[in-house]
Amino acid sequence: MRGERRPGVGRGRSGALAAVAAVAAAALGNTARPAALGSTARPVLPLHKAAKPSPPAAKHGKPPRQISSRQVWRAAALLALAALLAAAAAAAAVGWYATSILHERPEALAAAMTEVQAAVSGAAAGTAAAPEQEGGNLLAGNYTVVVMSYIKRLSTTLPYVVNHLGNCPSASEVLLVWNGNDPPAPSLFNTRAPVRVRAEAKNDLSNRVRPDGGIRTAAVLLADDDLLLPCADVERAFAKWQANQQAIVGFFPRLTSPGPPPQYLGERHVFRQMQYNTVLTGFAFVSRRLLDLYWADRYAQGRAHVLSEKNCEDILFNYAAAAAIQEGSQLLEPQQQGGAAELQPHAVWSQPSRRLDISFVSGVGISKSGGIHEAKRRRCVQLFSQWYGDILRPQPVRWDQRSATWRLLLRPACWLPTGCLYL
């Protein structure tokens, strides 16, 4: 019949479409159940959502961590606290060190005075050279402290230095050489020894070693206005000067050479090479006679250079002392084992137990200019050697052997940028 369908014809076409849809779904990865055979619905293709792009990975492992402003402030506060604690610890250490100088142990001072008495007696008996005592009118058992200063130090370091040195047992007078106007009154200071002020019209480093008729002692202690040492160390150096009255006996050794190139080496190099040929007059004992020699006409050119450079008067003083020994033919006793006689030393180092530079209180001083200061001093060594000869002979460093138990601790620590520290 025309109106009837042939069995299986329509179904066959639908089944074929369903089979094609199933194959396509399988090819596209669709796991959905295919349409039932005989269904007239069109197959639905699977929908895939676009994947979000992943952030780029860090080049080295994990991505960088974001630091908040709160964390930054916290770290800054911790650093500031650490700096404050370090400054407080440093201030406490300096305070303890200064206290150990100003309030020294009585037994140490008594032992030093015993050495002074023995040395003075030995010099008077002729067991040591005593050229200063030939006149018989100078005090042999005392010394005059000479400090040169100016107005900027009056309210900072000067009173500490004058009051301390003026109360050392063997000090007979403190002579304050004042460069500039408005010299202070002697009553400003609290010392056992009387204070005398000598005002200078011209600002000259050589004023400190200018001869002074008011000095009545054979020994003169030249002292900077920003250095502190225990009186026991000062007295012990005074005892050492009694046996070396021709020399500069002090606490700051240096090693110099005219070169080329000229050299001016500090304590670190002195102790490394175990020799020195210069002792600075920043804290040193000299004879009253050496003050006259420094101002001889032959050193006028050197003094003019000191005035123009505002430096090197202590180096020139070493040349004057060395020349006086050579020209005076002052000889040491020959060695007992047949050694030849040698010239007496012009410079003798005395090892301190404490030494404090308090110039940081005022922040002024010629040695604060660093490289410029060192360059000037190398130039001075070169010029003075040309003018007066290469006459600064080296001396061996001799460590203090008073205490064998603490021998290692007696040696200074020279690894600090501020200089050697004596403990």
TrEMBL record:
Molecular function terms, GO-annotated: glycosyltransferase activity
Cellular component per GO, a single term: membrane
InterPro entries from the UniProt entry: Exostosin, GT64_dom, Nucleotide-diphossugar_trans
Pfam families attached to this UniProt entry: Glyco_transf_64
Classification via Gene3D superfamilies: Spore Coat Polysaccharide Biosynthesis Protein SpsA, Chain A
Coiled coil residues, start to end: none
Region annotation Disordered: where it falls in the sequence: 47-66
Residue ranges of domain Glycosyl transferase in the record: 143-391
Domain of life: Eukaryota
Compartments it resides in: Membrane
Keywords: Disulfide bond, Membrane, Transferase, Transmembrane, Transmembrane helix
Transmembrane segments: 72-98
Primary location recorded for the protein, binned into one broad class: membrane
Family the entry assigns: Belongs to the glycosyltransferase 64 family.
Protein name, per record: Glycosyltransferase family 64 C5-like
Organism encoding this protein: Chlorella sorokiniana
